[in-house]
């Protein structure tokens, strides 16, 4: 298997893992709503912040392959969509803290 094929397999596996985490976050939120029958908009903002962050990771597939310490080096490029998702995620998490 060539390096490109290995990288594609790693990206696909990581992508599936991130999508699984996204589904898990949504399931936990739905279960909590059915248990309490209350909507906490701060908590919902936090959930959307987490989902936006994970979506930002999916928007730049090379982030899923590169180790965390290499994310901020000059050779790794974030997509414009990732920046937008990360900014929205940060704003929503900040809102959820209040």
Automatic annotation (TrEMBL):
Transmembrane intervals: 21-38, 44-64, 76-97
Name of this protein: Uncharacterized protein
Alphabetic keyword roster: Membrane, Transmembrane, Transmembrane helix
